């Protein structure tokens, strides 16, 4: 194994905190990986990794070497790409918001794969903020402004949100026209995975954001379940407009308080700040931004 390959392997071991996972990523036996790192440590004359039965972690020297390796490998990859004039290639691992992926990205995925025939794509779907480095993910796409994570954020689009209810619910409780009409109303409570609490109803007017904690007879932590409960008449619901398009067209749900819509929901991409943005990630995010700009959100 030459020095550059050893450096790539070392970077992967640090990021995955595991010889086994790093070896699998590099498609080599674990024994080959451990021997290559041992030889690298011998050449450098210092211990790069602390090894325990649970995980592998860089020593202070190892961390400094890791940072240098990142820059060196990024420069090498960029130089080779320029000289070859090559298109982005290899495996791209993306963790994306499930509903948005199914509604907008997947229908247009053939055009992306045709545009970049040397790319392979692995899509995971979820809403939690994953550990990109340790889990081997290149970038994530999430709805909502994330908490401070040490990641670089790229805003892709703003998603309009609306407030809706079933006709049967509005017959019983009345149709609210604005914040002053909310007394006596209920929501289908959506339980936040971040806080464990029911999200408040949010209304906006004249640049002012107002939150209302309305009672909920039924709560759920799954967006599809909350949506279904709203159709059954259990209360007001707020969500991105695209999720309600069919229900609105067929009269199963009715928008209310249209003059007080919530603030749009930002859709963001996140990737590690200690890496130069790879061509694979860059072209995917450019394409995703194009898809969402063209979408009827």
From TrEMBL:
Transmembrane segments: none annotated. The keyword Transcription regulation applies. InterPro entries: LysR-type_TF_proteobact-type (IPR058163), LysR_HTH_N (IPR000847), LysR_subst-bd (IPR005119), WH-like_DNA-bd_sf (IPR036388), WH_DNA-bd_sf (IPR036390). Residues 1-59 form the HTH lysR-type domain. GO terms for biological process: DNA-templated transcription. Keywords: DNA-binding, Transcription, Transcription regulation. GO terms for molecular function: DNA-binding transcription factor activity; sequence-specific DNA binding. Belongs to the LysR transcriptional regulatory family. This is LysR family transcriptional regulator. It comes from Nisaea acidiphila. The lineage of its organism: Bacteria, Pseudomonadati, Pseudomonadota, Alphaproteobacteria, Rhodospirillales.
């Amino acid at each position: 194994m030459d020095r550059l390959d050893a450096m790539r392997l070392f970077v992967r071991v640090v990021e995955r905190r595991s010889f086994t996972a790093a070896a699998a990523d590099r498609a080599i036996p674990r024994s080959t990986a451990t021997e290559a790192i041992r030889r690298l440590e011998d050449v450098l004359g210092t211990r790069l990794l602390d090894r325990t039965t649970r995980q592998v972690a860089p020593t202070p020297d190892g961390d400094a070497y890791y940072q240098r390796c990142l820059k060196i490998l990024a420069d090498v990859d960029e130089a080779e790409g320029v000289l070859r004039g090559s298109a982005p290639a290899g495996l791209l691992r993306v963790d994306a918001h499930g509903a948005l992926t199914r509604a907008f990205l997947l229908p247009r995925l053939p055009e992306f794969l045709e545009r970049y025939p040397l790319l392979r794509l692995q899509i995971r779907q979820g809403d939690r903020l994953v550990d990109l480095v340790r889990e081997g993910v290149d970038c994530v796409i999430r709805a909502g402004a994330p908490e401070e994570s040490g990641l670089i954020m790229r805003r892709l689009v703003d998603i309009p949100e609306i407030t809706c209810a079933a006709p049967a619910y509005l017959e019983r409780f009345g149709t609210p026209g604005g914040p002053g009409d909310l007394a006596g109303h209920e929501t289908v409570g959506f339980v936040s995975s971040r806080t464990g609490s029911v999200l408040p109803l949010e209304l906006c007017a004249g640049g002012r954001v107002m939150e209302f904690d309305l009672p909920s007879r039924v709560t759920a932590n799954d967006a599809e379940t909350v949506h279904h409960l709203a159709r059954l008449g259990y209360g007001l619901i707020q969500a991105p407009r695209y999720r309600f398009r069919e229900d609105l067209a067929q009269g199963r749900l009715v928008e209310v308080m249209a003059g007080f819509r919530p603030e749009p929901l930002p859709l963001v991409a996140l990737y590690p700040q200690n890496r130069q943005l790879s061509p694979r990630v860059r072209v995917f995010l450019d394409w995703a931004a194009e898809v969402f700009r063209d979408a009827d959100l």
